[in-house]
C-alpha cells in the first residue's frame, strides 16, 4: 500500500492548542486567540444593541453611520488564493477569481491607527499604520516614512488601536488619493516633521520588539524544538506560543504587542516549520507546527539536493579528477536515473502537456499497472516533491522552491519543445515551475494522469490526505454509533404531523442528500395570501454540539462537492438512514405568510414529521408547469458515451391538486423575486457549467488512487467527462421561470430565520453585505433606478459596466452576529438554515433556534437575549463563541467554495484539451466571448495585453491573448488557443469584434 505524502490533515494535540474546528464543543474548551477578537467582542455589543438592523425603518436609515464600526467587527466570507509562480494568466485570474471581494477585506477589519505587518517577498515584513480606505485599496504609512497601498494578501498580522487616529489627520493631505495613478517612487511623501509623532510610535514599537527578541533570543530561536511534536501537527495561536516561550510558567502572563512581534519574527524565520494559512491568518493568528518527522524529511532531502549539485559542479570544474559522490548526491543521482527510465515508458502512452499529461493512447476501461519499485530514499524525494507540487507547502520559501525546480531541471526531461501544446508565452516556455513538477510526478507514475490537485490543500483537511489521530478516533466512534444510534428527539413534544401535505423535494437526479422540501397552504378568508413552508432536515434535534457527529461536521465545515467525488460533512449512513427527507422523517419548518405583493406578513418556526414527500427535478417541475427550457443547451463529452442520463428517469405522475400547488408556489416565487428587485436585489445567471466525471460507461464518479510512493504506477485509459450548459441571456437574470422556484423559496426561508432570530436577539451567523468606505462611485439608489427602470423592467440586460458599478455599490458578503441588510439579495437579514446535512453553520443556527423554542415552550414567554444576558446555559453558543465561529468558519467556507470551483475548472480543462488537441470530441471553430476584465499588461516586459471573459455557450471563463482594443462589455468571436491543465485555464485568441456596448442598449447574445 502506498505511503501517504507529506500532505495531511493537521493532527491536533489538545494541550494548550485547542482544536480550532472543534472548539465549539464544550468537551474541548475554546481557545482564546489574541488577534482582533477582543475588539470584535467589545464592539459587537455596540452594533447589535437591538439585535437587528431594519433597512425599512426610517429611524435606522443612518446605517452608514454604523458602517465604519461594522467594517471592523465582521468577517467577510472571502476567497484569497495566490499563485507562487506568476504566469501570464495569473494577471487575469487574480482579478477575475475573487470578483473584487478580497480587495476590500482589509477595510472590513482595520481602523485608522491599527498597526500591521506588510508582507514582502523574500524580506522581513514591514510595520505600517493603517490611515484610510481608498476605493478598494487600503492606504498605510510605513515605518520607513513612505506611504503604501496594499491588498489582503500582504496583510499577515494586525495590532488594533496602536496609534491615535487624530495623529494621522495631518498626514492625509500629503497622501495620494488615486491608488491607480500613485507612484511611490516619483511622488512627494509626507514631510518628516509632519509625520514625526506617528514615526516615533512606529519606531518605539519596533525597538521594543527588537529588545524582546534580543533578550529572549535563545528561547525564541529554539521555539520549534520546544513546541513541536515528533509525529503530530500542533495547531496553536500566536498568543499561546508567546505564553509558552515567554510566560515562564506564569498563567496570568499576557503578551504585549512587542512580545507578539518578537515571536512572529522568530516564527517567520522558520516559515516551513510554523505553517500559517495566509488566506485567514490575519484573523485567526493560528500556526500549525509541523511534526519533527516531516521537517526532518524535508531538510534531509534539501541537503541531498545541495550535495548533488555540489558534486555536479566539482566534476564540471575538475573533469580530470575522480570525484566521489556523497550519500545524498548518490540518492539523487539514482532517483534521476530511475526517473528518466520511467518517463521514457510514460511517453510511449501519454504526451507531456502544459501542466499535465495528455490522454492515454490506449483506449478502453481504466486499468492500473505497476512498474519499478521506489526505494526508501526515492520515497523521501517523492514526498519532498509532492509537498511542493500538490500542496504548495513551499510557498514564499525560495530555497525549497529552487531546490525542487533545480531537481526537476536536472532530469533533462523538460527542455524547450518537450511540452506539447504549451499554454505559456514563448518567454516562459523553458522555465521549470510547479506545473512542470506535476508533469514529472505524473510521468514517473506517482500521481494519476488526471489528478485534481485542488483536493490536496492542507487547510481542507479532507480524507485524501493523511488523517489525524483525532479524526481517526471520531470515525471509529461514528462507526459504533452506526451500529447502535444514540439519537434522542429533543423536540418530540412539539412535533406537528404534516399528514398528507405534499412536500415537494426539488433536486437534480443523483443529489447526495435531500436537505429541504417546500409546501404551500392557503390562508382562510383571503384569496392571495398563503403560508409558504420550507421543511428542512432536522439532525440537530437528535444530537447536541458535543456529539461525535457534531465534531465530524465541525471538522469538515461543509460537504465538499467535486465532479469526481463527494466528501460528506456527515457520514453517509447518518444522512441517508436517519435525516435525509423521506416519508416519516423529522423536519424543522420555516413558515412565512406571504401577501399579494410579495410582502411577508408573518413568520414562524415549528417542528414536525413529514409523511408525503414528492421528489421532482427542476426540469420536470418546469415541464409540469408547461414551460420548456429556453435557450440552447450545449453538451460536450470526451472519453465515450455514458449510460447514466437524466432522460432515463420517468417523471412523477402529478395530480391536479399537486399541479395547482406548484402553480401557486410559482406565483409566490415571482412575487418574491419582484419584491427583492424593488429593494435593489439582483439575480445573476449561473455561469458555471455542469460537469460530471465517469470511471466507466455506467459508473459515475472516480475511484481515488492515492499517490503511489512505493512503486511506479501507470494508468491506461481515461475518465469520461461530460459538460453541459444552457447558454444564459446575459449576466443578470431579470425574469423568473419555474426552475427558479426553489431559489426564491429558500431565500424566503433564510430571511424568515433571520427575522425570527433577530427579533429575539439570538446570536447566529447572519449574512449581509456592506460597501467599502470612501468609495468614489455613484450611489446605489441612482444605479438601481437606472437598471430597474431602463433595463430590467423592459426585460433587457443592462450594460456590463453599469451592472458591475451597481454590484460594487451594493457591497460584498459579510458575516455578523446580528442582522445586517443583504443588499445584493434584497432582504433585511439572512441566515443559512436550509442545509444542515451539508453545512455546519446551518447546524449552529438550528441548535440556537431549538434551544430558544424549548425555552419559550417551557416558560410561555418570548425569548429576549437582552433581558436574559445574565442567565447561562440557555443558548448552546454565546455571542462570543458565535463571533469566534465566524472568524473560524468563514475562511474555510470560502476555501471550500474555491476548491469546488477549481475542481470544475480542472475537469473542464481536461475535457477541452482532449477535445481540442486530441480530437476526442467535435468543437465549434469559434465561440462568442463576453469581456469581463481588461489587463493591458501593466507595462511588464514580455507581457502582452490580455482580456478575460465568459464563453456563454459552455459557461467557461477564458483569457483572450493579444487583444489590444477590447473594452469591458464587448462581445467577441474567439477561437481556442491553448489549455493550461495545472491551473485549469483556457486561453483563446480574438477573431473579430461582434458587438460593443456603446453601440447597443441591450447586452447579451446576438
From TrEMBL:
Q: Which GO terms describe its molecular function?
A: exoribonuclease II activity; RNA binding
Identify the keywords attached in UniProt to this record, alphabetized.
Exonuclease, Hydrolase, Nuclease
**Which SMART domains does the protein's record reference?**
RNB
Q: Does the keyword DNA damage apply?
A: no
Q: What is its EC number?
A: 3.1.13.1
Q: Which residues form a coiled coil?
A: none
As given in the record, the signal peptide range reads: none
At the top level, the lineage of the source is Eukaryota
**Which example biological process does GO assign this protein?**
mRNA catabolic process
| Spans annotated as Disordered | 344-363
Domain (RNB): residue spans on this chain? 495-855
A cellular component term from Gene Ontology for this protein is: P-body
What protein name applies here?
Answer: 3'-5' RNA exonuclease complex component
The species this protein belongs to is: Didymella pomorum
Amino acid at each position: 500500500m502506498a505511503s501517504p505524502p507529506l500532505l495531511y490533515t493537521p493532527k491536533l494535540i489538545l494541550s494548550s492548542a485547542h482544536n480550532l474546528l472543534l472548539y465549539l464543543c464544550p468537551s474541548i474548551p475554546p481557545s482564546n486567540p489574541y488577534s482582533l477578537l477582543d475588539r470584535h467582542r467589545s464592539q459587537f455589543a455596540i452594533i447589535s444593541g437591538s439585535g437587528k438592523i431594519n433597512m425599512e425603518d426610517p429611524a435606522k436609515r443612518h446605517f452608514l453611520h454604523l458602517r465604519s464600526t461594522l467594517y471592523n467587527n465582521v468577517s467577510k466570507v472571502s476567497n484569497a488564493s495566490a499563485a507562487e509562480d506568476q504566469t501570464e494568466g495569473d494577471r487575469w485570474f487574480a482579478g477575475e477569481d475573487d470578483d473584487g471581494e478580497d480587495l476590500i477585506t482589509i477595510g472590513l477589519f482595520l481602523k485608522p491607527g491599527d498597526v500591521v505587518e506588510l508582507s514582502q517577498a523574500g524580506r522581513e515584513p514591514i510595520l505600517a499604520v493603517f490611515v484610510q480606505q481608498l476605493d478598494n485599496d487600503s492606504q498605510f504609512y510605513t515605518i520607513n516614512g513612505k506611504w503604501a497601498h496594499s491588498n489582503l494578501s500582504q496583510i499577515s498580522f494586525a495590532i488594533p488601536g496602536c496609534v491615535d487616529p487624530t495623529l494621522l489627520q495631518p498626514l492625509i493631505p500629503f497622501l495620494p488619493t488615486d491608488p491607480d495613478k500613485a507612484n511611490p517612487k516619483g511622488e512627494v511623501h509626507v514631510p518628516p516633521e509632519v509625520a514625526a509623532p506617528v514615526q516615533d510610535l512606529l519606531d518605539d514599537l519596533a525597538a521594543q520588539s527588537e529588545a524582546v527578541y534580543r533578550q529572549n533570543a535563545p528561547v525564541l530561536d529554539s521555539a520549534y524544538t520546544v513546541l513541536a511534536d515528533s509525529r503530530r501537527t500542533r495547531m496553536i495561536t500566536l498568543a499561546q506560543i508567546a505564553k509558552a516561550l515567554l510566560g515562564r510558567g506564569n498563567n496570568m502572563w499576557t503578551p504585549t504587542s512587542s512580545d507578539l512581534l518578537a515571536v512572529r519574527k522568530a516564527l517567520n524565520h522558520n516559515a516551513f516549520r510554523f505553517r500559517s494559512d495566509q488566506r485567514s491568518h490575519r484573523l485567526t493568528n493560528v500556526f500549525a507546527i509541523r511534526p519533527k518527522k516531516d521537517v526532518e524529511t524535508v531538510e534531509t532531502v534539501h541537503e541531498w539536493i545541495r550535495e548533488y549539485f555540489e558534486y555536479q559542479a566539482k566534476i564540471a570544474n575538475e573533469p580530470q579528477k575522480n570525484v566521489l559522490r556523497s550519500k545524498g548526491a548518490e540518492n539523487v543521482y539514482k532517483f534521476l536515473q530511475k526517473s528518466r527510465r520511467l518517463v521514457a515508458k510514460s511517453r510511449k502512452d501519454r504526451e507531456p502537456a502544459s501542466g499535465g499529461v495528455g490522454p492515454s493512447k490506449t483506449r478502453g476501461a481504466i486499468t492500473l499497472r505497476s512498474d519499478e519499485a521506489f526505494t526508501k530514499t526515492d520515497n523521501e524525494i517523492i514526498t519532498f516533491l509532492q509537498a511542493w507540487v500538490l500542496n504548495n507547502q513551499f510557498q514564499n520559501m525560495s530555497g525549497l522552491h529552487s531546490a525542487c525546480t533545480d531537481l526537476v531541471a536536472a532530469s533533462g526531461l523538460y527542455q524547450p519543445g518537450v511540452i506539447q501544446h504549451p499554454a505559456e508565452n514563448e518567454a516562459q516556455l523553458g522555465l521549470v515551475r510547479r506545473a512542470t513538477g506535476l508533469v514529472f510526478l505524473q510521468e514517473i507514475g506517482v500521481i494519476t494522469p488526471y489528478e485534481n490537485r485542488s483536493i490536496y490543500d492542507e487547510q481542507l483537511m479532507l480524507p485524501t490526505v493523511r488523517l489525524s489521530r483525532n479524526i481517526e478516533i471520531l470515525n471509529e466512534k461514528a462507526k459504533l454509533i452506526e451500529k447502535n444510534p444514540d439519537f434522542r428527539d429533543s423536540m418530540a413534544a412539539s412535533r406537528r404531523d404534516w399528514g398528507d401535505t405534499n412536500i415537494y423535494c426539488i433536486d437534480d437526479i443523483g443529489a447526495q442528500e435531500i436537505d429541504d422540501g417546500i409546501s404551500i397552504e392557503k390562508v382562510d378568508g383571503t384569496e392571495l395570501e398563503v403560508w409558504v413552508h420550507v421543511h428542512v432536515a432536522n439532525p440537530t434535534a437528535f444530537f447536541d454540539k458535543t456529539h461525535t457527529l457534531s465534531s465530524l461536521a465541525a471538522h469538515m465545515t461543509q460537504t465538499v462537492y467535486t465532479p469526481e467525488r463527494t466528501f460528506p460533512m456527515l457520514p453517509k449512513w447518518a444522512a441517508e438512514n436517519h435525516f435525509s427527507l423521506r416519508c416519516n422523517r423529522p423536519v424543522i419548518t420555516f413558515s412565512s405568510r406571504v401577501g399579494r405583493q410579495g410582502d411577508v406578513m408573518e413568520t414562524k418556526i415549528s417542528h414536525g414529521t413529514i409523511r408525503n414527500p414528492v421528489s421532482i427535478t427542476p426540469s420536470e417541475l418546469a415541464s409540469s408547469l408547461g414551460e420548456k427550457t429556453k435557450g440552447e443547451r450545449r453538451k460536450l463529452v470526451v472519453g465515450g458515451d455514458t449510460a447514466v442520463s437524466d432522460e432515463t428517469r420517468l417523471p412523477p405522475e402529478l395530480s391536479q391538486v399537486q399541479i395547482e400547488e406548484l402553480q401557486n408556489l410559482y406565483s409566490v416565487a415571482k412575487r418574491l423575486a419582484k419584491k427583492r428587485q424593488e429593494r435593489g436585489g439582483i439575480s445573476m445567471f449561473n455561469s458555471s457549467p455542469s460537469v460530471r466525471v465517469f470511471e466507466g460507461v455506467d459508473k459515475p464518479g472516480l475511484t481515488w488512487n492515492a499517490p503511489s510512493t512505493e512503486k511506479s504506477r501507470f494508468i491506461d485509459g481515461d475518465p469520461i467527462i461530460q459538460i453541459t450548459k444552457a447558454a444564459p441571456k446575459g449576466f443578470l437574470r431579470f425574469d423568473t421561470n419555474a426552475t427558479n422556484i426553489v431559489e426564491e423559496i429558500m431565500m424566503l426561508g433564510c430571511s424568515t430565520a433571520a427575522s425570527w432570530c433577530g427579533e429575539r436577539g439570538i446570536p447566529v451567523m447572519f449574512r449581509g453585505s456592506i460597501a467599502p468606505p470612501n468609495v468614489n462611485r455613484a450611489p446605489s439608489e441612482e444605479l438601481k433606478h437606472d437598471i430597474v427602470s431602463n433595463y430590467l423592467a423592459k426585460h433587457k440586460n443592462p450594460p456590463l459596466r453599469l451592472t458591475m458599478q451597481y454590484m460594487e455599490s451594493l457591497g460584498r458578503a459579510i458575516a455578523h452576529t446580528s442582522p445586517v441588510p443583504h443588499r445584493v439579495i434584497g432582504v433585511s437579514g439572512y441566515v443559512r438554515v436550509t442545509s444542515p446535512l451539508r453545512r455546519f453553520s446551518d447546524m449552529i443556527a438550528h441548535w440556537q433556534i431549538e434551544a430558544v423554542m424549548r425555552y419559550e415552550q417551557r416558560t410561555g414567554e418570548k425569548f429576549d437575549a437582552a433581558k436574559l444576558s445574565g442567565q447561562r446555559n440557555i443558548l448552546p453558543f454565546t455571542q462570543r463563541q458565535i463571533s469566534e465561529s465566524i472568524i473560524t468558519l468563514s475562511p474555510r467556507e470560502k476555501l471550500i467554495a474555491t476548491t469546488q470551483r477549481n475542481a470544475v475548472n480542472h475537469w473542464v480543462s481536461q475535457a477541452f484539451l482532449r477535445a481540442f488537441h486530441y480530437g476526442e470530441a467535435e468543437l465549434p471553430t469559434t465561440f462568442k466571448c463576453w469581456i469581463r476584465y481588461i489587463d493591458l499588461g501593466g507595462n511588464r516586459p514580455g507581457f502582452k495585453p490580455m482580456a478575460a471573459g465568459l464563453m456563454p455557450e459552455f459557461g467557461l471563463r477564458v483569457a483572450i491573448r493579444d487583444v489590444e482594443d477590447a473594452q469591458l462589455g464587448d462581445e467577441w468571436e474567439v477561437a481556442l488557443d491553448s489549455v493550461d491543465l495545472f491551473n485549469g485555464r483556457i486561453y483563446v485568441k480574438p477573431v473579430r469584434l461582434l458587438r460593443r456596448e456603446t453601440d447597443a442598449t441591450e447586452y447579451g447574445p446576438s
